[in-house]
């Protein structure tokens, strides 16, 4: 499952961004975003009328929430039924610009996704149901929080090496479990983690019941005690944002 968040480039639609979800060769859309773009006053009723095979609940949380997803066929049906005069303009943008470009390049637009975001997208559906990965949780608790404060984690450090804080967090979390929760030290399995160059490497995924322990470790150990050492030799600009990050966690 690959997640892409597309900035809206159409001025006359009630939509800040469009989320596309790729499952195999099929693309899905968040129903509420589509109905908002097409000016449906009642956003639930048109979704209820869709055939069962054209809608589903997201298999994983998206930005912390579960959403109803709809197929391309359902998007066409909603466009056809919409009273918005230029609804077909939205359909053409999605089907003639957004989706072909994602299929061709893996992303939409002129600017390539940051490496951290791209790896999150690539691995969004590679983790087993009932488990979480380090990068999936850090996308919200670290990358997303820093971005809201005005800082974007760069792809590379000053020495040209990739910046991958999830590697540091993953290694230290393993040690943290052994020291503070030895009964869970072996409570993990491996998944195939994909990188932007297409290479894969085995990485740990943990059962969801360990998520509260992981969140506590990130918020109370890694961010306040380890993040400074991690970033100071890689991107010192991050250091001015860490005190603000600690305040919000």
Automatic annotation (TrEMBL):
Taxonomic superkingdom: Bacteria
Cited InterPro entries: BRO_N_domain (IPR003497), BstA-like_C (IPR058744)
Domain Bro-N: 3-106
PROSITE patterns in UniProt: BRO_N (PS51750)
Name listed for the protein in its UniProt record: Bro-N domain-containing protein
Source species of the chain: Vibrio metschnikovii
């Amino acid at each position: 499952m690959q997640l892409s968040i597309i900035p809206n480039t159409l001025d006359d639609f009630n939509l800040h961004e469009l989320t596309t979800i790729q499952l195999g060769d099929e693309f899905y859309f968040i129903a509420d975003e589509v109905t908002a773009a097409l000016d449906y006053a009642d956003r639930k009723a048109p979704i209820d009328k869709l055939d069962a095979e054209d809608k589903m609940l997201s298999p994983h949380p998206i930005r912390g929430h579960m959403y109803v997803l709809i197929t391309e066929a359902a998007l066409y049906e909603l466009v056809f039924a919409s009273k918005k005069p230029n609804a077909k303009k939205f359909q053409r943008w999605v089907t003639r610009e957004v989706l072909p470009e994602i299929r061709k390049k893996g992303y939409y637009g002129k600017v390539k996704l940051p490496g951290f975001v791209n790896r999150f997208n690539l691995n969004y559906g590679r983790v087993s149901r009932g488990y979480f990965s380090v990068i999936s949780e850090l996308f919200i608790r670290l990358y997303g929080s820093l971005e809201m404060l005005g800082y974007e984690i760069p792809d590379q450090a000053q020495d040209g090496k990739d910046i991958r804080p999830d590697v540091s967090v993953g290694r230290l979390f393993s040690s943290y479990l052994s020291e503070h929760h030895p009964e869970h030290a072996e409570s993990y399995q491996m998944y195939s983690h994909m990188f932007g160059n297409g290479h894969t490497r085995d990485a740990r995924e943990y059962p969801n019941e360990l998520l509260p322990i992981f969140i506590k470790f990130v918020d109370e150990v890694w961010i306040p005690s380890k993040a400074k050492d991690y970033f100071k030799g890689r991107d010192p600009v991050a250091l001015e944002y860490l005190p603000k990050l600690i305040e919000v966690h």
